[in-house]
Amino acid sequence: MAKYRKKDEPVRKLTKTGKYTYYVTIPREYIEVLGWRKKQKVTLRLSGKKVIIEDWKG
Which of 19, 21, 24, 36 is close enough to 40 for a disulfide, judged by CB 3.0 to 4.6 Å? Predict the structure, then answer.
């Protein structure tokens, strides 16, 4: 069964930058809504087949 994206859901490519490093960009609108700034520290965790990105509370 094919999965279709919602019209308002942005699609991003996974890009390789080094031997072991990958990145994906986050839309500016999301960053603004979350109140994140340049050099914001975030945490990553796996939840099943999803990656959860959250503000680092340090």
Answer: 36
